[in-house]
Amino acid sequence: MLRRLIPSVRLTLQVPKATTTAVRSNSGNVYEPDYLESLKPKFPQYDSLNVQIKGYDYPQLESYQRFLHGVAEYLDLDVSECYALPPQQTQVQRLRPNSTVIESEYKLTTYERNLQLNNVDAPVYPQFLRLAQAALPEGVSLRVQEHTDDCEERRYVPDKELLDLKDELERMGGPTTSRKK
């Protein structure tokens, strides 16, 4: 029964082919070939997106990042970089009711991982986002934003020793610009 239906479905889904003529499009330059128009993307694209995930449980965060990377590869998205930012330490104190006495103290560590996606087609982005939200583990936050220079600056950790040496050099009188011969 299914074999009988498939040819009829194929016939109904066939679209008549348009006849091609040798007319040049006036939208392009005279010296550019016609096939350059067909190489342009069909849909608008996001240049660069940062998928930022934060959580308190490091193994869970790593696993979720691996999952997102796999989903991005499955959807043929260009994953240019995956990187981790240094963890942030937070100290939380719980006080007794109506007093200043500390009942308990917690040290929380927030981990952050980032995926950078390039040239994401507009129709594929909602699919990726729905899959990412559907598989979002408990305690993990997801944020997607366009890539900016601030995202790039947050990535690099300053070298403490180098900064200390620069401060010491400034205290000694600064660097000399002239050379001795």
TrEMBL record:
It holds the Pfam family Ribosomal_S10. Keywords: Ribonucleoprotein, Ribosomal protein. Residues 50-145 form the Small ribosomal subunit protein uS10 domain. This is 39S ribosomal protein L48, mitochondrial. The lineage of its organism: Eukaryota, Metazoa, Ecdysozoa, Arthropoda, Hexapoda. Gene3D superfamilies: Ribosomal protein S10 domain. GO terms for cellular component: mitochondrial ribosome; ribonucleoprotein complex. PANTHER family: LARGE RIBOSOMAL SUBUNIT PROTEIN ML48, MITOCHONDRIAL RIBOSOMAL PROTEIN L48.
